[in-house]
Amino acid sequence: MANLNMYDEVVSRYYESIRMYCLEKLRNNESAKDCTQEVFLLLHKKWNTLKGYDNISAWLHRTADNIMNNMKRKSFHEIPTDNEELDIPVTENFYEGNNLLDIIGAEDYNLLLNYYIAGTDKKVIADKMGISEVHLRKRIERIKNKINKYLSKSDNNQQ
Question: Which runs of consecutive H residues, i.e. helices, occur in 51-130?
Answer without folding.
Answer: 56-76, 100-104, 106-112, 122-129
